[in-house]
TrEMBL record:
It is found in: Cell envelope. GO terms for cellular component: cell envelope; membrane. Keywords: Copper, Membrane, Metal-binding, Transmembrane, Transmembrane helix. InterPro entries: Ba3_CcO_II_C (IPR034214), CcO_II-like_C (IPR002429), Copper_CuA (IPR001505), Cupredoxin (IPR008972), NosZ/Cyto_c_oxidase_sub2 (IPR051403). It holds the Pfam family COX2. This is Cytochrome aa3 subunit 2. Its main location: other. Gene3D superfamilies: Cupredoxins - blue copper proteins. Residues 55-163 form the Cytochrome oxidase subunit II copper A binding domain.
Amino acid sequence: MEIHKYEKWWMIFGTGTLIVFLIILGVSAFHGGTHPNNSKWTINYENVDQIEPFNNPGLHKVEGKDWDYEVVLVAQAFAYNPTEIEIPVGSKVRFIATTKDVIHGLEVAGTNINMMLEPGYVSEKITTLDKAGTYTIVCNEYCGTGHALMYSTLKVVDNNDNN
Ligand code: CUA
C-alpha cells in the first residue's frame, strides 16, 4: 500500500496534536489539580448541620495527614459559615465545602481555589497557602437577590510579622 506524501504529513500532524492535547490534559489534571467535584462524597443537603464535618464549620488543625489544616465551609443563601478564617502562611490546607440550598460558587479571589458547590455533594480542594494576605472568599455563581453580599474572609497570616 502506498501512502501519499500529504496524507502522511496529515497523519503525523493529527497524531502529534492528539499527543499534545493529551499532555496538556494530563498536566492540568495531575499537576494543576483540575478535576470535577468529588461525586463519590454525597450528603443530605437538608441535614448538613447535623452531618460531620459540617456540624462544626471552621478551621481545624489535623495530625497525621498530608495536610496541616482542614477548613470546613458551609454555604447557604446568602452567606458562608464561618465568615472569617485565619491560617498561618505556608500551611497545607484541605478545603471541604458544601451547600445547604442552591448552587454556589466558592472562589478565593486571587488564588486557584474555585469550587462549585452543588446541593447533595461535597467539594474539596487541597492547596498550600504560601502568600500572606487577606483574601475574599466570594460566590461566583448567581444564587439569588443576595448573591453579591455573599462572602467570607480568609486571612493568611505571617506570625513572625508582629502584625
Ligand atoms: Cu451564593 Cu452567589
